[in-house]
Amino acid sequence: MKNYYLGQIDQIRESDLFKSEKYIYTSQSSCINARDNSGNKTENIINICANNYLGMSDHPEVIKAAKDTLDTRGYGMSSVRFICGTQDIHKELEERMSGFLGTEDTILYSSAFDANLGVFEALLDDECAIFSDSLNHASIIDGTRLCKAKKIRYANNDMDDLQVKLEEEKGAKIKLIVSDGVFSMDGIVAKVDQICELGRMYKAIVMIDDSHATGFIGKTGRGTHELKNCMDRVDLISTTFGKALGGASGGCISGRKELITILRQRSRPYLFSNSISPSVVGGVLKVLDMIGKSTELKDKLERNTNFWKKGLTDAGFILTKSDSPIVPVMLFNAKLAQDFSKDLYDCGVFAIGFFYPVVPKGKARIRTQISACHTAEQLEKALEVFTKVGKKYGILGKNREEIIEMYPISDKL
Ligand SMILES: Cc1ncc(COP(=O)(O)O)c(C=O)c1O
Q1: Does the C-beta of 51 come closer than 6 Å to ligand 1?
Q2: Is the Cβ atom of 214 under 6 angstroms away from ligand 1?
Q3: In angstroms, what is the span from residue 289 Cα to ligand 1's centroid?
Q4: How many CA atoms lie within 13 A of 284 on its CB side?
Q5: pLDDT of the residue at 413
Q6: Are 101 and 237 in contact (CB under 8 A)?
Q7: Residue 177 and residue 165 in contact, taking contact as beta carbons nearer than 8 Å
Q8: Which of 137, 185, 224 to mutate to test the pocket of ligand 1 (most atoms within 8 A of CB)?
Q9: What distance, in Å, lies between the first and last C-alpha atoms of the chain?
Q10: Which atom of ligand 1 lies at the shortest distance from residue 240's CA?
């Protein structure tokens, strides 16, 4: 049996798909110290791949709020919510999230992954149908697998395909359309307004995963439903506290009251997994205070993102058509993505290569992510380094076919 798994590991390595981790020994920020698994330390690396969109992960006010809550509400809950795991601040956070997202009610989970795992099975049975975008996050895919409803995949952001499929299944007892609000690998915003319109036409529940949007997308950072002017038309929003809202952990589903009430009664990760720790709740509440008062950080994030996208485009890189701070630099070949990432690291820039199974075969990339806490100097330096490494591999100004000719697709698994 051991040899079977060793063989699999060899195969992953031979296909250039083996992922290794660096160890950060500072707090999460736009500038970090890290060491590799041989113990080699590198200091003051510019971090351009965290989900730390608003720079809250090490914000002094958030840390203070978390510490204060540790003092007043303790370390852990040692219980799920319905036994003795609900503090006043859990309720407060649910109410504050509903207020922020413009919804009727909210239910907390230990993570957005758990939220997505727990939602479908609780609401739908084998007479129902789920219409899921083909680029949806892994947690949505896994969540739908746990549910007996018929699963129908529609082509990414393709409303004609979604409509054809809704038409084919229009007899289903309950229909639910689910999409990422921002597709996490490409940074492209979903056509949430058109999804809502199809939802209305076919009487389907609309669910949007705004994990890469809550806090910074839309005029006041409410998310993709604000951006697309359909705040009151999305029935369910799932989102995370593990990115813009502090970056620690936790997530929620927010939406129509009757749906949230059913989740509280039936959703398995809610019923059978521990409550979010009080200090994390305290931290998220502080983030909500801060972003509720001003859009300063969101505005800075937008300016930083525009600077970064323009700089990379002018340098001759191929980017996706991202409309968010997720800015993927397309390299196509998995080994090239790994080598590129290593060279960036050696020059003081931390950005990870993404390849199969995280993205489809032949679509390897460096996914960069911009933060409000990046300084102009950090972004300029990172741009210089990207350009230097891009030149080394001869890919600047080249189109997809030319890059693939130089670096044939090697993701064999
Ligand atoms: C779209 C999307 N949904 C859900 C999740 C899971 O979030 P969490 O880290 O809170 O489990 C992620 C995280 O990668 C995500 O990108």
Answers
A1: no
A2: no
A3: 23
A4: 32
A5: 47
A6: yes
A7: no
A8: 137
A9: 21
A10: 10
Cβ–ligand 1 contact at 324 (below 6 Å): no
pLDDT of residue 132: 98
Looking at residue 262, its pLDDT comes to: 98
If you measure from the C-alpha of residue 167 to the centroid of ligand 1, how many angstroms do you get, rounded to a whole number? Answer: 30
pTM for this entry? 0.96
> For ligand 1, is residue 278 a contact (CB within 6 Å)?
no
Which of 109, 120, 180, 184 to mutate for ligand 1's pocket (most ligand atoms within 8 Å of CB)? 184
Is 17-47+296-406 a CATH 2.40.10.270 domain? no
Question: Which amino acid, one-letter code, is at 214?
Answer: T
Ligand 1 nearest atom to the CA of residue 182, by list position: 1
What tens digit of pLDDT does each residue of 253-302 get? 999 999 999 999 999 999 999 999 999 999 999 999 999 999 999 999 99
Instruction: Say whether 176 sits in a helix, a strand or coil.
Output: strand
Q: Atom 7 (ligand 1): residue with closest C-alpha?
A: 112
Q: Give the start-to-end residue ranges of the domains of the chain.
A: 17-47+296-406, 60-293
Distances (CA, A) of 136 to 97, 184, 342, 375: 23, 8, 28, 32
Q: Which CATH architecture has domain 60-293?
A: 3-Layer(aba) Sandwich (3.40)
Query: To which residue do tokens 């080994």 refer?
Result: 335
What per-residue confidence (pLDDT) applies to 412? Answer: 56
DSSP 8-state code for residue 324: S
Mutate to test the pocket of ligand 1, among 156, 237, 240, 243 (most ligand atoms within 8 A of CB): 240
Question: Which ligand 1 atom minimizes the distance to the CA of 139?
Answer: 4
CATH topology match: 17-47+296-406 vs 60-293 = no
Asked if 106 contacts 253 with a C-beta cutoff of 8 angstroms, the reply is yes
**pLDDT < 50 regions, the chain:** 413
Q: What own/partner pairs with CB < 8 Å and gap ≥ 24 does 161-170 have?
A: 162/131, 162/195, 162/198, 163/198, 165/131, 166/131, 166/198, 166/201, 166/202, 166/204, 167/202, 169/129, 169/131, 170/202
Q: Is the CB of 298 under 6 A from ligand 1?
A: no
**pLDDT given at position 411:** 65
> What residues are labeled active site?
184, 212, 243
For the chain, state the CA radius of gyration: 22
Instruction: Provide the pLDDT for residue 38.
Output: 82
